[in-house]
Q: What sequence folds into this?
């Protein structure tokens, strides 16, 4: 067994690999970029090596830097995770040439499956059903148009070197073929440096079904059943589950046999996934499922397979890479219950799924029996603009599909992240969509119904009322005002937007602000201040503490000239940092705040005198 392992990746997958390696007594070595100096995978590994600036092209994608880090730390093996260099045959070969163990398939297997057209031809030859289409060398637009007509519209144009949902064009009308082809080729050339395309029949009611396979160096290949990843947004997976709903034993037997044949055709070693597309218009049928592509690495969604089979796929990867055989026989593998995974992202569905970057001031995950969170961040960590903004994979297990689905929905609804926005409420709504509940979604579901799922989430009035009560002094609450009507309302600001809320109670020790959490979202609720600015009491220039807390830094000195918006000091309260800024141009006339000082709400921290 290998004794030390360098993980050429970051985020949740680096942490996931470290977890198993550590349990197996293997020394772990992380690599990190500038932006990841304080990342969770760096904290969790036994050692960590800095490999350069934040952009991936200057760090995680530079094979020489990874190899140098391995040499420097005496690492015996390299695990690439997914993405980055994981399907780079040249890098895999360089690792092997450096005398290290590559935790992955042979470079030749990666190459064989690297281009979609070559892979499809190879699979067809091996007797694996492939999606009907044209996968020839001839790239003459007229020939391609002819082939498209032969296949029959609608067709899909796919870049042979494409990936991640990029480089694909759906053409429904032959009149649009030429334009779609040109634009697909442009995108393919720019993104993948290869403008070759193939043409495929566009499958109606398409379901994405994939099979986890595993090979060892002793010639054994097993499968670990299927996953269904049909719920997608723009060809990217959103929710994955195992097994696939509506899969009967005969269809499963045929599909998994195809997958094993596919893996054997490329002498596959390690963890791999054979992706199929199914025409789900009449349920899953063996004669309507076709090979799409093979991913020659561990997948993002591997946990759902682990949860139903009890297998630790990373452990198998490390054993097989060390030359051991797969520890169990095919007959001993079985499906226990149902597992479902959602990808929790730092993004704002209401704003076109724009990434939401910043500090994770609040980070809470819902819990459930059999629940699992695979994350690469912690409370206080940054979501940086440099990498995929995934916060966590939230995974639930249940005796049956409904139980897994409900548990996952509860785990997401009980999560709370602030001030970074997430897709949690989008995911909850997707899980509750009637077609998802019925297990009949196709890959176009979100395209058709996504708008309602993406709508801006709102806290309920009841939740807001109880939150507002925590901000109102008891003596001011309506129940204690004998002559007032039983319910009054007050003005508050929710994430800075004024809002009238019914007053139904009060608090003996009212807070200066509260975080309202509901349905997986979090909002800051504060008393309404007319000027909207924290602590700056209008034109007076008095900088008051907006809530009780601790001064963590003071950026200015007494007598210093400051400009409007300049940072004066930072206060920590409720585990959050609040920056207080100058309300206008002026000088620091008074400065009472000192680092580490505890201050009461409304304490005068500083006073700015306006420049006349
Ligand atoms: P990538 O390598 O970019 O992930 P894939 O070939 O795996 O591309 O396809 C991505 C997704 O596109 C699939 O999961 C499926 O939703 C859709 N798709 C691919 N091929 C077809 C097809 N022939 N008909 C309908 N949808 C398809």
A:
């Amino acid at each position: 067994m290998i004794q030390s392992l360098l993980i050429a990746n970051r985020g949740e997958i680096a942490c996931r690999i470290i977890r198993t390696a550590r349990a197996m007594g293997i020394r772990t070595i992380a690599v990190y970029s500038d932006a990841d100096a304080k990342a969770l995978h760096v904290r969790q590994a036994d050692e960590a090596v800095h490999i350069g600036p934040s952009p991936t092209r200057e760090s995680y994608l530079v094979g020489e830097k990874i190899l140098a880090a391995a040499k420097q730390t005496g690492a015996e093996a390299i695990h690439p995770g997914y993405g980055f260099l994981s399907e780079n045959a040249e890098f895999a070969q360089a690792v092997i040439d450096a005398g290290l163990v590559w935790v992955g398939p042979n470079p030749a297997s990666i190459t064989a499956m690297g281009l979609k057209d070559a892979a499809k031809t190879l699979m067809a030859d091996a007797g694996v059903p492939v999606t009907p289409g044209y996968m020839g060398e001839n790239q003459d637009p007229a020939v391609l148009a002819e082939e498209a007509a032969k296949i029959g519209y609608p067709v899909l144009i796919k870049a042979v070197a494409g990936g991640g949902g990029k480089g694909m064009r759906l053409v429904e009308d032959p009149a649009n073929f030429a334009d779609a082809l040109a634009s697909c080729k442009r995108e393919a050339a720019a993104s993948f440096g290869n403008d070759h395309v193939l043409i495929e029949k566009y499958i109606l009611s398409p379901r994405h079904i994939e099979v986890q396979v595993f090979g060892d160096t002793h010639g054994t290949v097993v499968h670990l059943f299927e996953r269904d990843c049909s719920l997608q947004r723009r060809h990217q997976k959103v929710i994955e589950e195992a097994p696939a709903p509506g899969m009967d034993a005969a269809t499963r037997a045929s599909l998994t046999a195809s997958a094993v044949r596919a893996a054997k055709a490329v002498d596959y070693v390690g963890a791999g996934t054979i992706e199929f597309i199914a025409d789900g218009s009449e349920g899953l049928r063996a004669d309507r499922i076709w090979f799409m592509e093979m991913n020659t690495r561990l997948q993002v969604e591997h946990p759902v397979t682990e949860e139903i089979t009890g297998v630790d796929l990373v452990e198998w990867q490390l054993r097989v890479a060390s030359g051991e055989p797969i520890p169990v026989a095919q007959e001993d593998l079985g499906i226990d219950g149902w597992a479902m995974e959602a990808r929790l992202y730092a993004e704002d569905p209401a704003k076109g799924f724009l990434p939401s970057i910043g500090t994770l001031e609040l980070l809470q995950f819902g819990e459930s029996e059999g629940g699992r969170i695979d994350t690469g961040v912690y409370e206080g960590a940054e979501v940086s603009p440099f990498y995929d903004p995934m916060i966590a994979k939230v995974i639930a297990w249940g005796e049956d599909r409904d139980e897994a689905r409900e548990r996952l929905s509860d785990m997401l609804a009980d999560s709370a992240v602030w001030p970074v926005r997430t897709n949690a409420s989008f995911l909850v709504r997707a899980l509750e969509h009637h077609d998802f509940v019925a297990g009949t979604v196709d890959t176009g579901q979100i395209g058709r119904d996504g708008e309602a799922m993406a709508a801006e989430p709102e806290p309920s009035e009841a939740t807001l009322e109880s939150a507002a009560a925590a901000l109102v002094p008891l003596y001011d609450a309506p129940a204690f005002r004998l002559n007032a009507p039983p319910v009054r309302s007050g003005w508050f600001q929710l994430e800075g937007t004024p809002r009238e809320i019914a007053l139904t109670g009060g608090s003996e020790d009212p807070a200066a602000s509260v975080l309202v959490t509901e349905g997986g979202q979090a909002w800051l609720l504060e008393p309404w201040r007319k000027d909207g600015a924290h602590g700056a009491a209008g034109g007076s220039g008095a900088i008051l503490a907006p809530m009780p807390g601790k001064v963590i830094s003071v950026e200015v000195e007494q007598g210093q000239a400051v400009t409007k918006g300049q940072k004066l000091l930072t206060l920590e309260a409720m585990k959050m940092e609040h920056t207080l800024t100058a309300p206008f141009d002026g000088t620091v006339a008074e400065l009472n705040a000192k680092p580490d000082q505890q201050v009461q709400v409304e304490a005068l921290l500083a006073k700015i005198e306006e420049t006349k």
In short: Residues 131, 156, 158, 162-166, 200-203, 206, 208, 232, 235, 275, 277, 292-293, 443 surround adenosine-5'-diphosphate (CB under 6 Å). Residues 360 and 381 are 6 Å apart (CA to CA). The two ends are 75 Å apart (CA to CA). Residues 532-538 have pLDDT under 50 and may be disordered.
